[in-house]
Amino acid sequence: MRQTERFDSLTSLRGLFILVIAFHNTMQFQPLFNAVPGSAFFTLFGGDLGNSMFFLLSGFGMAFGYRDRIQAHTLAFQDFLLKRLRKLYPMYLISNFAALVLEVVQYGLSAINLQKIVLTVLLRMGGGLIGKSPYNAPTWFLCTLLLCYVVFFFVSYICKTPTQYRCAIALGIVWGYFCMTASLEIPFCDSGSGVGLMNFFIGCALAEGYPLLRDKHRKWAAPAAFAALLFMLYLMLRYGIEIICGNVKVAFAFCVCPLIFYLAMAQGLCTKILQWKVFVFLGKISSSIFFWHLVVYPGFCVVWLAPGQAITERDYLVYFAVMIVWSILSHWILEFAQHHEKKDFQCIGKL
Hints:
This protein is an all-alpha fold. It has helices at residues 3-27, 39-71, 77-107, 114-121, 140-158, 162-182, 191-209, 215-239, 248-265, 269-274, 277-284, 286-304, 313-350.
């Protein structure tokens, strides 16, 4: 199997877990689908599970794709960071502005907070820093992800040997765990940053361990991971999710998400299912879904429903379809703009 095909399964995994985050966030307003098995679990824990998986996948992708170039000093920090910002920052900024407009429409000019606007633009909101979230609340994630990128770059740049690098990864996991559990109210060391750093560096550790899983052993990885995951799910449903590691976020970070990751990569049935084109496409628009799901939701409720009317399950399905269509359109618009921006830079370089 070609490497790109195998990594398509991780793209699909990202898309599926973005939907988990979207479901969790929107169900906080009004729980629905109570008759559907598993809906209560995702309503309660979908945010923690989705965030853990997304940070883990980001760490794996960074380590697998950029570590060697950074350690060889062939990739400049400004190029590395600008590429990340160029991909995510425009949609982050536009979605936050749209969320601000919706708040002004609903609550008046009192929704405008200059300090909050400045900190949102500077990507320093959320995670407990000042006790506030951006106007588009889920995008606190990007503020923490940017911190993970910066720490990862300098860890990779400074460490000269594999041993030093692996020790730094382990230290990053421990430091993230400490920040998460200590609930520090210190910039870059708050609980949100801790969750991000811990899971991000777990992803880096998986990138180190993945090549060690040789092809002749991979056929056993899928059934072993699947059996372990089923056992953990049984324990969580029977005795409560905190039965594993004593903490929901720790259980997801160290047990559940790594097992799901290996199921996606082990060339078994799960890998083949995740390589279906519809799932891969879902992964490609996952960033748009993440940025817009909680902006489209209140906008949909204001336009579609009468003021004060509760959303029904049928309404929610309509919202979901509208949100997916809007995410696809915004994804295509951003890709079109970035493509033309790249062509403009190439033309300028030839002058």
